Amino acid sequence: MSLLARLGMETPIIQAPMAGVSTPAMAAAVSEAGGLGSLGLGATDAAGAEAMIRQVRDRTGRAFNVNLFVHATPVADVGIEADWLQALEPVFRSVDGAPPEKLRVIYDSFNDDEEMLRLLTDEAPPVVSFHFGLPDERRIRALKQAGCLLFATATSLEEALRAQTAGMDAVIAQGYEAGGHRGVFDPQVEDARLGTLALTRLVVSRLEVPVIAAGGIMDGRGIRAALDLGAAAAQLGTAFIACDESAADPAYRAALMSDAAQQTVMTRAISGRPARCLKNRFTDWGRTATAQVPAYPIAYDAGKALNAAAKAVGESGYGAQWAGQGAPLARAMSTSALMAVLKQELAAAVS
Q1: Interstrand relation of 211-214 and 170-174 (parallel, antiparallel or unpaired)
Q2: What does DSSP say about strands 37-40 and 13-15: parallel, antiparallel, or unpaired?
Q3: Calpha distance 266→179 (Å, rounded)
Q4: What are the residues facing 14 on neighbouring strands?
Q5: Are 84 and 291 a contacting pair, CB within 8 Å?
Q6: How many Å apart are CA 242 and CA 247, to the nearest integer?
Q7: What is the pTM of this model?
Q8: In this structure, what are the phi and psi dihedrals at residue 274, rounded to the nearest 5 degrees?
């Protein structure tokens, strides 16, 4: 049975689980339209995850996906963190703010979060997906016993093969074009920076499980191209940022629709991990910063504090405005309307 059939999907469109952007209303609308809606749970705790899952279920009886971060447990380094805060101090001053006295671990890895595991095995969402790595064998076994299908992001053939061996039911091939955080398992290892086209073909040629193409896909023709490469479905993230149900704030939406969309950049400065963002004041500063960036998500504590201070004085250039290289193709409309357009474009695309 195909992946789409197993999930009751009517169209090979998966909405990316963008933490901080995707909402229960968006995920439910995508699923109701025959795709696979997604929730990004990596930035919340078990209580927050439970509330979001139940909101989706109040809106749809169809399958949906929840996504977890599986990064290595961060190791605090007081010296590196102090140097980072010192380097950021002039930036904070420029927006009438002050850096935190110290930095915290603001998100737990799924491998360190027993409450989240208990919640997911109790709630048993149809799909659970992972970013930044793979859960340990106990967590994989528990989720499979609960009846969940498991997906994992891979940015290389080696990561994809590891995901298949670990028991993933599908692998998301994330090209370098993709917006938001790179899914690399180890950010200290040199990134091959494979694009969506090359990566998808490589992974499809070697894996036995279904492959989902992600990165730079914004319309029906892009979805068709992914399918022609052998992907079972396409995952779109940036395409949904401007939707009515998105949690993106007005400044983020305005930036997405501006010339900034032409210049996405990969940066570690905001969160501590490489992530593709609309070019803004923070990415410009990060490009010239010489201090070592603290570990993810410790660095993100400073990034969020800076953005909050800047927004308080009307400055929107320090936000985590994640977006992929296809950003100039973004369209503002409701999620259901976008899904209808995507399906029409896919049907019209010549294979």
Answers
A1: parallel
A2: unpaired
A3: 9
A4: 36, 235
A5: yes
A6: 9
A7: 0.97
A8: -65, 135
Q: Give the Cα separation of 130 and 125 in Å (integer).
A: 13
- Rounded to 5 degrees, φ, ψ at 173 are -85, 105
CA distances from residue 76 to 223, 255, 296 in whole angstroms, order as listed: 41, 33, 10
Q: Are 304 and 312 in contact (CB under 8 A)?
A: no
Q: Give me the count of residues in the chain.
A: 351
What is d(CA 347, CA 207) in angstroms, rounded to the nearest whole number? 27
**pLDDT, one tens digit for every residue, the chain (351 residues):** 899 999 999 999 999 999 999 999 999 999 999 999 999 999 999 999 999 999 999 999 999 999 999 999 999 999 999 999 999 999 999 999 999 999 999 999 999 999 999 999 999 999 999 999 999 999 999 999 999 999 999 999 999 999 999 999 999 999 999 999 999 999 999 999 999 999 999 999 999 999 999 999 999 999 999 999 999 999 999 999 999 999 999 999 999 999 999 999 999 999 999 999 999 999 999 999 999 999 999 999 999 999 999 999 999 999 999 999 999 999 999 999 999 999 999 999 975
Paired tokens of 47: 């209580």
List the structure tokens of 226. Answer: 């992914």
C-beta separation of 276 from 268 below 8 A: no
How far, in Å, CA of 298 to CA of 77, rounded? 10
What is the full DSSP assignment across 219-261?
Answer: SHHHHHHHHHTT-SEEEESGGGTTSTT----HHHHHHHTSGGG
Torsion of CA 156, 36, 141, 164, to 10 degrees: -30
Whether residue 151 contacts residue 171, with contact meaning beta carbons closer than 8 Å, is answered with yes
Angle subtended by helix axes 196-206 and 220-228, to nearest 10: 40
292-295 LR contacts (CB < 8 Å, sep 24+): 292/80, 292/83, 292/84, 293/84, 293/268, 293/269, 294/77, 294/80, 294/81, 294/84, 294/103, 295/74, 295/75, 295/76, 295/77
Residue with tokens 């995920």, as numbered in its chain: 27
Q: How far apart are CA 66 and CA 27, in angstroms?
A: 10
Phi and psi, residue 57, nearest 5°:
-65, -25
